[in-house]
Design a protein that fits this description.
Elements: H1 7-18, H2 29-32, H3 40-50, H4 61-73, E1 84-92, E2 98-105, E3 109-112, H5 121-132
Antiparallel strand pairs: 1-2, 2-3
């Protein structure tokens, strides 16, 4: 079949095709939930909105809202939590468990376990987090 087309015509067609670029598609709800079991879609969605570098253009609005809620619950000034640095999902602990969501700020490390059946797991999370980010006492 290829022999019926001149090679130079195919080369011209290929070069023309290379000039076309697809626009970056906007993320939708389903794109944020890459692992679709247990609590992971919720974690992925939280991570998407908490990250000010994502394409949602909300900057730190969602992060600041979460910090305001936590600060109110523990009766602290939101400024004591620091500024956003990063957010990670599904972080492995030293003993093979997983931390659902870690938010690192300039002053704190916030650890979220959205689903657990073992009340000793937070101790595992704490030990692993301190090794991962030793700047936190």
């Amino acid at each position: 079949m290829l022999d019926q087309y001149p090679l130079n015509a195919l080369q011209v067609l290929l070069n023309k095709a290379r000039t076309y670029k697809l626009d970056m598609r906007e993320k939708n709800f389903f794109d944020t939930a890459s692992r679709k079991y247990y609590e992971n879609p919720t974690t992925e969605l939280l991570s998407f909105f908490l990250n000010p570098l994502e394409v949602h253009n909300l900057n730190t609005l969602f992060f600041n809202g979460l910090i305001d809620c936590i600060a109110k619950k523990v009766n602290k000034d939101p400024a004591t939590f620091g500024e956003f640095i990063s957010v990670e999902t599904e972080v492995c602990t030293l003993d093979g468990k997983r931390i659902d969501l870690i938010i690192e700020t300039t002053k704190n490390l916030l650890i979220f376990a959205l689903y657990t059946t073992n009340f000793t797991e937070p101790l595992s999370y704490q030990d692993s987090a301190f090794l991962k980010l030793p700047k936190f006492p």
